[in-house]
Inverse folding.
């Protein structure tokens, strides 16, 4: 005899989405706000992640001074100064700053969540790619699962070598975290320096639901195409990846010109490089560049991409960069299905890869002046979108 279905549960009984404020957004990740384009952050599809020791103060100033509301995330950045151990996977607040009735991670999270922000990252220390790092990650997951902090995202700041050397363990650990997760990749230079790492990152993201990719570059758009709930792009090169504590990131150099996204090539290049090597520099028509041209009434729309040559151009370059990747994300997000998002993302990467040949032959018939990154090459030609079953057992 058929049974009569009961009433549907009231909408108010559905558990709230802890990532509602940031879901579907690509945020700006900042530490030094002097040149950050905070006034250009998109209200609809953007937001800001504030990092470092002054994150709370910077967030409070931004919220008080911004003309439009957008999500704010706090990143305590414990991974910048300390390595995680099984005994101390997190950096906790000094006892005199927290409620003495509570100790450890719970008290620290309580302190951070009292700040004016939509979400807070856990103060996880840097996770080495070794046995101690594995034990520290396991301890961090256990402690995080023992807390009740709905506005906290579990941060997993792992050395990029985890992607290829301990990927299965990383996937298993992330899948066991009850809270939303945020992956942060660390390396002295580019964490996605090889095709193998780019492929491994896609596998991790596709295998671990509700895992964001933060403090990165255009890999943020790759992450969103993989189904990440949100992502963040670093304002400067130093905030586009984490650096192991007590080491110096990047290669030594004297070029003070800012990094600029050349849209046709989907890459960051020094402004001085573009000024020296572009034969017929195109004018950028992103909003900040158009506003720059209008303010000078020079009779031409926008700003030439070879124009960002001096340190004084840094803020304008950062505004240009954010406008470019924000526009790309809006275009991707306008697609009606995940498959269409992936196809459009891959199509953009393929067009950019083809542009390298055109730009290089325009400069020299024999020498390649611009080189596409290994990650871009992988994004352009790989069809490997599904997680491997062997990695998620």
């Amino acid at each position: 005899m058929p049974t009569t279905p009961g009433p549907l549960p009231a909408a108010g009984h559905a558990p709230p989405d802890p990532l509602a404020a940031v879901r579907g957004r690509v945020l700006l990740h900042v530490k030094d706000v002097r040149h950050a384009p905070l006034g250009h952050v998109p209200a609809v599809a953007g937001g800001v992640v504030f990092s470092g020791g002054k994150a709370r103060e910077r967030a409070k100033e931004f919220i008080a001074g911004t003309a439009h509301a957008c999500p704010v995330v706090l990143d305590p950045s414990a991974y910048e100064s300390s390595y995680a151990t099984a005994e101390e996977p997190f950096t906790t607040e000094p006892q005199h700053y927290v409620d003495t009735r509570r100790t450890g991670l719970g008290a620290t999270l309580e302190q951070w969540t009292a700040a004016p922000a939509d979400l807070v990252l856990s103060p996880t220390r840097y996770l080495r790619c070794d046995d101690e790092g594995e034990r520290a990650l396991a301890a961090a997951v256990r402690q995080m699962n023992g807390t009740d902090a709905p506005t906290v995202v579990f941060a997993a700041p792992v050395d990029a070598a985890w992607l290829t050397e301990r990927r299965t363990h990383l996937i298993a650990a992330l899948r066991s975290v009850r809270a939303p997760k945020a992956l942060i990749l660390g390396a002295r230079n580019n964490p996605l320096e090889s095709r193998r790492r780019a492929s491994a990152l896609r596998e991790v993201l596709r295998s671990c639901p509700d895992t964001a990719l933060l403090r990165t570059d255009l890999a943020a758009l790759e992450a969103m195409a993989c189904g990440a709930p949100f992502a963040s792009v670093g304002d400067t090169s130093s905030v586009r990846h984490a650096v192991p504590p007590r080491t110096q990131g990047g290669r030594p150099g004297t070029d003070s010109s800012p990094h600029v996204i050349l849209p046709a090539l989907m890459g960051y290049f020094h402004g001085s490089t573009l000024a020296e090597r572009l034969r017929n520099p195109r004018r950028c028509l992103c909003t900040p560049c158009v506003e720059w041209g209008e303010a000078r009434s020079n009779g031409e729309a926008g700003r030439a991409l070879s124009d960002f040559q001096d340190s004084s151009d840094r803020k304008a370059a950062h505004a240009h960069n954010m406008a470019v990747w924000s526009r790309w994300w809006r275009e991707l997000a306008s697609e009606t299905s995940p498959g269409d998002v992936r196809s459009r993302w891959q199509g953009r990467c393929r067009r950019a890869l083809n542009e390298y040949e055109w730009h290089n032959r325009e400069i020299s018939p024999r020498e390649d002046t611009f080189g596409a990154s290994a990650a871009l090459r992988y994004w352009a030609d790989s069809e490997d979108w599904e997680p491997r079953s062997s990695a998620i057992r």
